[in-house]
Amino acid sequence: MSGESAVTSRTFNLVDQQSFAQATGDWNPIHVDPVFARRTVAGAPVVHGVHLLLWTLNCVARQFGMRRPTQISASFDRFMLVGQSASLTTKWRDEDRLLISVEADGVGRCSIDLIFKDVPSGPPSGGSDWPFFAPGKEAIDRPVAEIGGLSGHVPAMSPMKEITDLFPQAASWLGADVVATLGATTRLVGMVCPGLHSIFKGLRLTLSATDTGPERGVYFTTGPVRHGLVNMAVVGGGMIGTVSAVVRAKQQSQPAMADIAPLLLPDAFAGDLAVVVGASRGLGEATAKILAAGGAHVLATWSEGEADAERVADEIRDAGGRCTTFRYRIGDAAAALSSIPHSPTHGYYFAAPMIAEPASQFFDVERLRNLERFFLSGFWEFASEMRAKHAEARLFYPSTVYVERWPKGLAEYAMAKAAGELLCTEINAQLAPLTVIAARLPKLQTDQTAVLYQTEHADSIEVLLPLVNKVQRG
Description:
33% of the residues lie in helices and 23% in strands. It has helices at residues 14-24, 29-32, 34-37, 49-63, 161-166, 168-174, 176-192, 257-260, 282-293, 306-318, 333-337, 365-389, 411-430, 460-473, and strands at residues 5-11, 71-76, 85-93, 97-104, 107-115, 151-154, 198-207, 218-222, 229-236, 239-247, 273-277, 297-302, 322-327, 346-349, 394-400, 435-441. The strands form 2 sheets. The protein has a 10-stranded antiparallel beta sheet with strand order 1-3-4-5-2-7-10-9-8-6. It has a 6-stranded parallel beta sheet with strand order 13-12-11-14-15-16, sandwiched between helices. Helix 12 (365-389) packs parallel to helix 13 (411-430).
C-alpha cells in the first residue's frame, strides 16, 4: 500500500525536555538551558533528535497494527526548536517499508525509515573491559583530538520504567530494552562523544530477535573525525548499527579587555556615557569593551542573558573600566531607558533575533515581520527615546554586506536590514540633531555566524574599532 497521510502533531516544551533528559541522561544544555542554547548555532533550545524518533515510533505503534521492524534509520536534518509544532506524516508505506517525515513550519526536521523485511547485520562487538561512561548532568567538553578511536560503554538510565512510561506503545511494540537503548544513544552523543559540543546527525540500527550486547545501554567505538562528522559503531539492547554525530562549533568568545586596552588611549572616550543594546555577547560585547577601554562609562543591556552581561561587566570593571548593566527588551525602550540617571551621549544597537533559522523554500512573511520588529520598529523606538534623553546623541546601526548579496535562506534578513538603512536616513532627517551612523558589517565572529564545525570571519575588533571611533568622535 502506498500514499501519504498525516498522523498527528505535537508541540514540545521545556517540561517535556526535562522529562526526556531525566529518562535518558542526556542533559546537554542545548536541549534544556535557554540561555546556553541561544549562544549556539540553533539560537534556542533544541528538541532531542531521539525524542522525536521515540515520539514517532510511539505514534506509529498506536496508529498502525504492524509487525516489529527489523531496521530503524533516522536522519535528524534540521533543528526542531522547543515551542515549534511538530507534524508527523507517513510518506509512503507498503508491507516492507514505512517512510515518515517530521516537519515544522513546512520544513522537514527528521526523516525516519522503518524496514520490516530481514536485514543482515554484522557480528556484535564490545568488551566488558571497555571504559565505562556514566556522566551526571555535566556533558563532557571533549577535544576533537580525543574523539577518533574512542571506545567505551554508556549505560541506559535506571530505572528503565521512566523512559518506557514516556513511550509505552513503542516499548510494547519494540521491547523495553530497545527503547532504553535508543535513549542511551542520545546520552552517548550529547554527554560522552562528541559530548558538550555535539549534534546528533542520525542512526541506522538493525534489531535482533535475540540480545546482541548489554541488556541496557550501548558499547561504542568511533571512527575518525572528518570535516566535523564522526561515525560510531554501536551495539546493545537487541540492536547493532551506527550512530552519526557532528562536532558543533563552540560558543564564540570575544577578545579580552587585556587584548583591547593597548589599542586605545585610556581617555579617548572620557566623559562619554554609551548605551550598548545587546552587550551580553557577540558584537555588543566587543563594542562595550572597546568603549570601556577608551574610558567611556558603558551602560550594557541584556534581554535574557543577565549572567552573560554581568560577566562582561565584571571583566570591564576588573580592568579598571566602568560598566552598569540593565534589562532592555524590544518594545519597552521607554521604561528601560528611564532608569538611566544621566543623559547618554551615545548608543549602539545590537539587538537581534535568531537570524539563520531554517525556512521553507518560499518567502516567509512572519519571519520578516519578526526581523522588522527588531531592526525597524525596535530601532526607531530606541532612537526616539535616546533623542528625548539627549538631543545630540550619536547612534550606531549595524547593517550587513548581505544587503547587496545574501546567502540562501537570508533574504528576509537582507530585506529588513536594507529597510533599516532607509530608516536611518529618515531618522537623521526627522530627529536631528541626533545622528545615526550606519555601516555594512562583514561576516564577523559571533554566535549568529557560527556554523556546525568551523567558520571564516573578519576580526571583530579590527572592524569595530574604527567605527566606534567615528561614532564617538564624530
